[in-house]
Every structure is written in C-alpha cells, then in structure tokens.
Amino acid sequence: MPEVKILEDVCKGCGLCCDGICPVNILILSPNRINSSGYHPATVTDMEKCTGCGYCYITCPEPAIEVYK
Amino acid sequence: MKLIFGRPAGLTEVNQRYCPGCGHGIVHRLIAELLVELDIRERAVGIAPVGCAVFADEYFNCDMIQPPHGRGPAVATGIKRARPDCILFSYQGDGDLAAIGTAETVHAAARNENITVIFINNAIYGMTGGQLAPTTLPGMRSTTSVQGRDTGKQGYPIKVCELLAGLDGPYYLERCALDTPKNIIRTKKVLKTAFQNQINNKGFSLVEILSMCPTGWGMTPVQSKKWISEVMSKYYPLGEFRNRAKEEK
Ligand SMILES: Cc1ncc(C[n+]2csc(CCOP(=O)(O)OP(=O)(O)O)c2C)c(N)n1
Ligand code: SF4
Ligand code: SF4
Ligand code: SF4
Ligand SMILES: [Mg+2]
Known about the structure:
The complex is a heterodimer.
Chain A (H helix, E strand, L loop, with lengths): L2 E4 L20 E3 L12 E3 L10 H5 L5 E4 L1
Antiparallel strand pairs in A: 1-4, 2-3
Chain B lengths: L2 E3 L17 H15 L6 E4 L8 H4 L3 E3 L6 H11 L4 E7 H7 L1 H9 L5 E6 L2 E2 L5 E2 L18 H4 L5 H5 L7 E6 L3 H19 L5 E6 L3 H4 L3 H15 L3 E5 H5 L1
Parallel strand pairs in B: 2-3, 2-4, 4-5, 5-9, 8-9
Antiparallel strand pairs in B: 6-7, 8-10
Bound molecules: thiamine diphosphate, iron/sulfur cluster (SF4) (3 copies) and magnesium ion.
C-alpha cells in the first residue's frame, strides 16, 4: 500500500495539493493543527485510498510531501 | 517501504523563502530532479537572477553565480565559452529577463549561444512589491497600474517566445505552465529537452513558464493556478515556438 508523508514543518499551507488534484481526494488543510511557521499543514484523511500517483508531490512547491510504496 | 517521490538531491536542505503557493519552488524542484536524472549536477553552473529567486544559490545543490540584474545570459555565455564542459542554466524572472535584461536575452538568442535559459513569467515584479512588468496583461492590476494596465499609457506586453521566434538564432523555444499536474509534467519534459540540447551542443534553448505569484496578484494560491488556466494561458498560449531538431529531421 502506498503511503504519503507530509513534512508538517516544511508545508506552507498553500492548499495547492488539496484542490482536486488528488484523484481520490484525501488531502485537506488541517483545520486544527498549526506548524512551527504558523501555517495549517496539509494532512491525509484516508491513507488506505492513496494510489501513490505522486500528483501531490508534483504540485507541492516546497516540496513538503514524500510518497512511499 | 521505498521512497518514490521526495526532495531531490539537486536541492539543498535549505527551506525556500518563497510565499506559500509560489511557482518558483515547483520549477526549482523540476530543475533539481533533472540535475540528478541527467547526471549533470557536478558540472552544472546555475545563474540566479535578481528577483524573488535571488537566493537560488542557496537552494540548488550545484555551483551557482548571482550576477547583476538581467545579465544572466551574458554571464552564462562567458562561462560556457571558457568552460564548454559546464552545463549552464540561467534562471530569470520577467523583470530580469524581459525588462532590464532584454538586450542580453535577445543577443544570446540571436547568437544561438549554447546555454539553457529558464524564464519564470509571473506577469509581475514579485520581489519589489508587485509592480507592472513588461509581461503584465492588459487590464491586469499591479501596484503601478492600480486601475489595470492601460495599453494607451503603458503599452502592450512582451511575448518573449513570440519575440525570439522572430530571430533565426534560437534552437528551441517553448512555453509551459504550472497550473495542473499534467502541465507540470510537461514542463519537466521541456526543461529536459532544453538541457539535452545544450549537452548535444545544439545551442540556445529558452523555456518560458507561466508561474503563480499569489502575493503579487492578490489571490490565493488556488485562485492563482486557476487564473493561469483561465486567463494567463489564453493571452500567452502554451506550446512550441521553435524546435530546430524537428527541422533537421
Ligand atoms: C539594477 C537594478 N535595478 C532595479 C532593481 C530592483 N529590482 C529588484 S528585483 C526587480 C524585478 C523582479 O521581478 P522579476 O524579475 O519578474 O522577478 P520575480 O520577483 O517576479 O520572480 C527589480 C526591478 C535592482 N535590484 N537592480
Ligand atoms: S499520491 Fe496521489 S493518491 Fe496519494 S495522496 Fe498524493 S495525489 Fe492523492
Ligand atoms: S502543496 Fe505542499 S506546501 Fe502546499 S499545502 Fe500541500 S503540502 Fe503544504
Ligand atoms: S512575491 Fe510572488 S514571486 Fe515572489 S516569492 Fe512571493 S509569490 Fe513568489
Ligand atoms: Mg516576475
């Protein structure tokens, strides 16, 4: 099963990975977490569904996303 | 488990100081991946611009130089001629490349200089506070065109790929965008061709990339990428403007 890791303190909460680019829509900006820079980091809602396509990584400017398989 | 997508070795560990959702970070990553994939990191020399990417020398894990505003292609020319084994990339914004550096850009292209130019078109001067750039769209607001660009007063934008396609010199010119994963993947393919052309001594390649500047545009990152899809890429059509490899076939 593929797995996505968000590097919370690198994420700038831009939301680019959360806007419909994930084919299974499992990325959101965490409403109740704040990282060391004051941003709401992205988070995965249902890891089981991840296909490992890498679109989130491709979209992330930081990059604050790692994909494992 | 094996890492299949993650920070490439072509980037340092320094966290980039760009605004959230800025396109510069995406292009940095694509270049960094290619430095590794093409095995050119040890002989690459990057030229950082004056603009938000002025600190690119801290972000790329290869040799870097940061010359005066707009002089990237001239400095790249000098290094390439002195050290033809090096792979030169000049990374430039629209203010850097199409305003103060117009002469250097046009002449390097006309000479078909064997360098790779990576042109970040975000239609604005990001670093200095969102002023009008040569690439600002008609009607687009900036801090020096608060009612929107008035072509009667401020003239018309410069379409860099179209302008350079008027010259016989350049080997490869293409415009891409960062608005969708598909277009980002395409951008990487185009950047790869631009580096390969230099490796094969073909001459001047320029890749123009329509890139988000959420801060300068007064939009969220998500609104910015939609604006590229719906507005900016209509004014600046994506595609190939010159590819002499095809003519040679
Ligand atoms: C000789 C000189 N003139 C003007 C400036 C001020 N200046 C700094 S960055 C910049 C333009 C930046 O815009 P752009 O190249 O589009 O880069 P961006 O920040 O948008 O990526 C200007 C005019 C300068 N640093 N040096
Ligand atoms: S790898 Fe693909 S499926 Fe998995 S979270 Fe990222 S975009 Fe979604
Ligand atoms: S694209 Fe990257 S920086 Fe932006 S919210 Fe997603 S993980 Fe964070
Ligand atoms: S001002 Fe614009 S170009 Fe500069 S870092 Fe911010 S978003 Fe990027
Ligand atoms: Mg700019």
